[in-house]
């Protein structure tokens, strides 16, 4: 258990110390991004930064062989209910993303509101070159109600 805690701490440290120059934007770039993003996408970005960035990175690329990417994968672009279920319930065990195997733990984010989950997943499904449909709060509520 002690080794797991050390590995987890190192993963978080690595994620936080990744190339910050690449992630920094000028004030003009930040202002332009805010004017071109819908309020829902802006909210999704805030939720992403607070809950997902450390593991999946600012550019959605993930951490090699630890946390999968969110770019162009069937997990993100595919069935909405599956994706919503992953966020609400977390995910543990072996999965394969783009022919790479992962065996990690993603915590549940069921504490997020339906609106926050919808905004988060819309942001993910429409960022980094992803071009998938919006997720509505009603979609999240429907998945949540099936689980009760």
Automatic annotation (TrEMBL):
<dbReference type="InterPro" id="IPR051459">
    <property type="entry name" value="Cytochrome_c-type_DH"/>
</dbReference>
<keyword id="KW-0408">Iron</keyword>
<keyword id="KW-0479">Metal-binding</keyword>
<dbReference type="InterPro" id="IPR036909">
    <property type="entry name" value="Cyt_c-like_dom_sf"/>
</dbReference>
<keyword id="KW-0349">Heme</keyword>
<dbReference type="InterPro" id="IPR009056">
    <property type="entry name" value="Cyt_c-like_dom"/>
</dbReference>
<feature type="domain" description="Cytochrome c">
    <location>
        <begin position="39"/>
        <end position="128"/>
    </location>
</feature>
<dbReference type="Pfam" id="PF00034">
    <property type="entry name" value="Cytochrom_C"/>
</dbReference>
<protein>
    <submittedName>
        <fullName>Cytochrome c</fullName>
    </submittedName>
</protein>
């Amino acid at each position: 258990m002690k080794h797991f805690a050390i590995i987890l701490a190192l993963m978080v440290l690595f994620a936080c110390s990744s190339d910050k120059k690449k992630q920094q934007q000028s004030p003009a770039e930040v202002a332009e991004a805010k004017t071109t993003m819908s309020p829902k996408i802006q909210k999704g970005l805030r939720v992403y930064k607070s809950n997902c960035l450390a593991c999946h990175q600012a550019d959605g690329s993930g951490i090699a062989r630890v946390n999968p990417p969110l770019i162009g994968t069937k997990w993100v672009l595919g069935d909405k209910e599956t994706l919503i279920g992953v966020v609400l319930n977390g995910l543990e065990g072996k999965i394969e993303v783009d022919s790479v195997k992962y065996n990690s733990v993603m915590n549940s984010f069921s504490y997020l509101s339906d609106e926050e989950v919808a905004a988060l997943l819309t942001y993910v499904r429409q960022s980094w070159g992803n071009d998938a449909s919006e997720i509505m709060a009603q979609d999240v509520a429907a998945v949540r109600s099936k689980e009760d």
